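Morning F.,

Quick status update on the modeling queue. The single chain you submitted on Monday has been processed. Sequence for confirmation:
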Amino acid sequence: MWWLQSNNNESLSAFLDERDVELVPLLTSLLEIVDEAAALARSFYEKVDELEVIRKGDATPLTDADTALHLLLCKRLDALSLAVPILSEESEGADIADRLSWPACWVVDPLDGTKEFIEKTDQFTINIALVLDGVSELGLISIPCRKEHWVGVVQNGAAVFPEGEGLDGSVVNVQGLNRSRPLVMLASHRHSPKRVQALLDCLSSHFGEVERRNSGSAVKFCDVAVGNADVYPRTSACSEWDVAAGDALVRAAGGRVTKFDGEPIKYNQRSSLLAESFIAGGDACIDYAAIFNVPGFGDRS
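Structure tokens below.
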């Protein structure tokens, strides 16, 4: 399995070598961390109707589950002794005031899909990415209700690991476009119907029949990585911690993730932590950015 072989990611290798850390023990530790985090998430999920929901400044919901997961992940990631700061959705402003000076950081969403969590759809995730010089090189998405951890290390590979079984996982790969069936585009039922339809129409003009499939949170990245869907274009607002782990996962599985201008996504490089519009595609031979090269597609108006 790729995770037991040599690390082909030069940036990650250099980063780990400086800290005298091997990739396999790091992956093992990360899986143990999300084992614990996923169990904690489920304990809150069982009593979600009793949780107080607070609206943050951007009107997104916050529950005790978000806070507890943030504290747990920060404590466990700090204990890895990699000397890497943490950029989490629930970080205090003072903790990330100098974030633009960080050459490396963990980008974490303790509970991606809080609305799905509150509505008990089962489609919420825990996202952890290791970003080096603005590039997401390692991504981990845990789906607590499935008891699955999805891990991608760019230039090495991607895999799904059953919760509690360590490195006993299965390799996943994106699938090339099968033109004998409809192209599958992922979206959320929360996304703007007008924007989603415009994306569907554009794809249909190039590929013929297109099927829309709804999926929540970062589960969409997992669906692309394993070949259950062909493309996930995102023009509605989200933040970097919603994207970074899935970006690495899809690229590690052999896919392509870019902004609408075709350029790679860079993280923690701008004053805003809002993610730019992006496209995650399974078949890396298809330049979806060129297909969507229509004025206004990358805008969020």
